[in-house]
Amino acid sequence: MDPSFHEARWKSFQPxxxxxxxxxxxxxxxxARNPYARALATPVRRCPITNTxxxxxxxxxxxxxxxxxxxxPWFLPNHVSKATPAEDGLLKEGQAEQEADSTASTASTAxxxxxxxxxxxxxxxKGLKKGPSAYILSRQTLLQELQNPQSPYFKAQRRLLRxxxxxxxxxxxxxxxxxxxxxxxxxxLELQRRRAxxxxxxxxxxxxxxxxxxxxxxxxxxxxxxxxxxGCVLYLGPAEGASSEPGPxxxxxxxxxxxxxxxxxxxxxxxxxxxxxxxxxxxxxQDSELLRNGSLFMLGRQATVNxxxxxxxxxxxxxxGEQQATSGAHNWK
Length: 333
Known about the structure:
By secondary structure, the protein is of the alpha+beta class. The chain has two domains: about 40-90 and about 125-180, no CATH class; about 190-330. It has helices at about 5-10, 25-30, 35-40, 80, 90-100, 105-110, 140-145, 170-175, 185-210, 220-225, 270-285, 290, 305-315; strands at about 45, 50-55, 60-65, 75, 130-135, 215, 230-235, 255-260, 265-270, 295-300, 330. It is globular.
């Protein structure tokens, strides 16, 4: 039993390594830590409503799924279709709203027995039957225009997946009967805010329990320049019970950039009071002692890249035009 013989014999049967054996260059490592470069590197997709082609990061993906109880086709955001069954109750919440307009059709579909004479069993979200998907520009204003009778985009969600039809009668019938929630813009906003709060709470807990440095508290804007692992700056407003203490010298708008000059590249500054809203910000501070006792924080390191991208996408989703979404670059001294 020669070990060298068996090593040579089974060498070609060893599983291939999951990662390349080549060491990444400095540029590749820097690129992997940049959420904005990663956003631009996503595959280009087209929004059939606005005829806009952009990297898919700037679009919202919708899946055509079957309702777990009625079997009726619904357009469901990809946030929900790949989440846990108890994520949002999106289909069940919207069912009552849609039944007001289509009571007869919904009731007949819900009471339709199966071939064996039994009532169809309710399925969890993990059992949703998913169909094709389509992309829409990720802007809250666009989703609101879909419900505005005076807008050229009124009910333009009917164009989704029409280019993929190719005369398929089953898909045509499903698209004609598909349900679209009238409050879809608010649903997407709530989902993205919830994801952001979950991510911030997760990293804040790791800082408190394990001593990690994903979120670093800053006493002033000058402290930001002294930090090494920079991602984006989070402004939460005055800390609870600390109204009499001096806070940061400058209160940023909802989205702005911090010009570090020779200290490094500009940093994005997120005003979480506007980005998350009062309810979610209060919930975040209630669940995290770290975020409860400060107003200015640095979110950094590579593990937070996806969360930084989510905050950036939420900023784009909430953009309301130049006159309402104030942004700019500032020199901090």
